[in-house]
């Protein structure tokens, strides 16, 4: 800004003494005004150049001045906070200049209108092109996000509905000395149907059997000679007014906890307690396994947080290395 002001004073100083040098300083002022994005200083520099330049150059500077002055005026009118003094000075300079150059108004008006029309057309074409490109980019990004969401959705379904079921059946086979082959075949058939119908959003909880019984079967399937499972509460009456979606999420959360226990904790005692109070069901999971020094679940336990949030619930983890695992979660029944 200081350099710009210096060029302005020098141009004024040399107007009468050395017009050529005054033009040079006016041009330098114009270039600096562009660099510092000062349209007002550009207008002042153009005024000096119009007064000092040859007729041919004056015409070019006038066109630039006219276009810049109109553009600046339009921007000021569109702004909510207009600067009255600058607008007044611009209009005054514009009026003084038009009065001094009255003989050229009609010709310059035609040229200006033509240039404005061409410039506006080009501007709209460029703007339309960039808007079209941005729209296409947004559509591609939305598509990519949708694809990723779909992939995550099916990965989660496979993990919850197939992988944990398979592990549950494996645990039963491992811990049951003499297993009924037809019963095993039925369970494998269920897993097959679940994997075949993964594209559907329906939950794979068996509606023909009471939820409490099905939940108990799943939990006790992880019991073995080395691992004792105890269930407190959780009778059928507890689940009478619970939504089907909430039941399914509770089933998957507990199935994930039991699978994690079987795979990683080495626990020999697991207790699951169900309690109903103030229209909320609270589930407390305890095991005496090796626990975790830091709770950094890679996928399964992290899914439990997402699941409980989907039914407006909350979950907390309490674990230390070699001190077992305590998980408590609750959700509203209404």
From TrEMBL:
Residues forming coiled coils: 62-115
Keyword set, alphabetical order: Coiled coil, Kinase, Membrane, Transferase, Transmembrane, Transmembrane helix, Two-component regulatory system
Keyword Coiled coil in record: yes
Entry keyword Coiled coil: yes
Transmembrane segments: 111-132
EC nos: 2.7.13.3
Top-tier EC class: transferase
Highest taxon of the lineage: Bacteria
Reactions listed under catalytic activity: ATP + protein L-histidine = ADP + protein N-phospho-L-histidine
InterPro entries hit by this protein: HATPase_C_sf (IPR036890), Sensor_HK_TwoCompSys (IPR050482)
UniProt-listed PANTHER family: NITRATE/NITRITE SENSOR PROTEIN NARX-RELATED, NITRATE_NITRITE SENSOR PROTEIN NARQ
Name of the featured protein: histidine kinase
Gene source species: Pedobacter riviphilus
């Amino acid at each position: 800004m200081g350099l710009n002001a210096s060029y302005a004073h020098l141009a004024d100083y040399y107007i009468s003494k050395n017009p050529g040098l005054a033009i040079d300083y006016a041009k330098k002022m114009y270039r600096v005004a562009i660099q510092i994005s000062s349209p007002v200083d550009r207008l002042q520099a153009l005024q000096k150049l119009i007064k000092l330049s040859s007729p041919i150059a004056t015409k070019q500077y006038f066109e630039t001045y006219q276009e810049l002055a109109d553009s600046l005026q339009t921007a000021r009118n569109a702004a909510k906070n207009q600067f009255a003094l600058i607008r007044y000075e611009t209009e005054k300079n514009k009026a003084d200049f038009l009065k001094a150059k009255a003989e050229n108004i009609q010709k310059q008006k035609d040229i200006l209108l033509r240039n404005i029309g061409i410039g506006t057309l080009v501007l709209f074409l460029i703007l339309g092109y960039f808007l079209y490109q941005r729209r296409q980019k947004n559509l591609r990004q939305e598509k990519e996000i949708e694809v990723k969401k779909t992939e995550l959705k099916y990965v989660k379904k496979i993990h919850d509905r197939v992988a944990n079921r398979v592990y549950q059946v494996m645990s039963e086979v491992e811990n049951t000395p003499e297993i009924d082959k037809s019963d095993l075949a039925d369970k494998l058939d269920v897993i097959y149907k679940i994997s075949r119908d993964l594209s559907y959003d329906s939950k794979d909880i068996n509606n023909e059997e009471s939820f409490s019984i099905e939940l108990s079967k799943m939990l006790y399937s992880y019991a073995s000679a080395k691992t004792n499972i105890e269930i407190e509460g959780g009778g059928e009456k507890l689940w009478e007014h619970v939504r089907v979606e909430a039941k399914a999420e509770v089933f998957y959360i507990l199935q994930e906890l039991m699978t994690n226990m079987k795979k990683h904790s080495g626990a020999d005692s697991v207790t699951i307690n169900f309690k109903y109070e103030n229209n909320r069901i609270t589930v407390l999971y305890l095991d005496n396994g090796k626990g975790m020094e830091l709770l950094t679940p890679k996928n399964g336990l992290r899914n439990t947080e997402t699941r409980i949030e989907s039914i407006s619930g909350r979950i907390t983890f309490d674990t230390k290395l070699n001190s077992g695992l305590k998980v408590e979660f609750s959700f509203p029944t209404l």
